[in-house]
Amino acid sequence: PPQVSFTLELEFSCSILLDHAEVTLQATSDSTEATPQDNMVKLSVPIRYEPNLFLSSNTNLHRYEVHPLGTFTHSSGPEFTTMVKVQNLGCYPIQNVTLHMALPALGYDQATILSVTHVLAENAACVLQPLDEGTQVVPVPPEDLLHMDR
């Protein structure tokens, strides 16, 4: 029997959110057919909306001095603020978004190079968690930083 293939492209409104779409397909002919009851099919397909998330960050300190080996003092350096923003640029609501950030905390010889003093959050619940005990922290030797621009 002859077959026809085609693609159906549906466009949905931002104002009405649907969880499924129903499509009815019917084939007709001018000729007489013995089994016309199988010429129609109803399809129901689930709809999943594609998120359009935008992640940005900004900091008030773009330069940080790293002291040569042996001259490092244990006093805290300048305080800086980093703002991380997650925006939904799409028109569909998004639920259960989780953002994980790993912050560098140890340098050469286990020296602390960063400590978080406080976390402020808007429209989100933030949890500051130390590393799990099973997680191995690998310090960055100074010579490896020579080949990195950031």
UniProtKB/TrEMBL annotation:
- Protein's recorded name: ITA10 protein
Give me any GO biological process, just one: cell adhesion mediated by integrin
Q: Which organism is it from?
A: Panurus biarmicus (Bearded tit)
Q: Which domain of life is it from?
A: Eukaryota
Taken from the UniProt entry, a GO cellular component term is: external side of plasma membrane
PANTHER family reported in the protein's UniProt record: INTEGRIN ALPHA (PTHR23220), INTEGRIN ALPHA-10 (PTHR23220:SF26)
GO molecular function annotation:
integrin binding
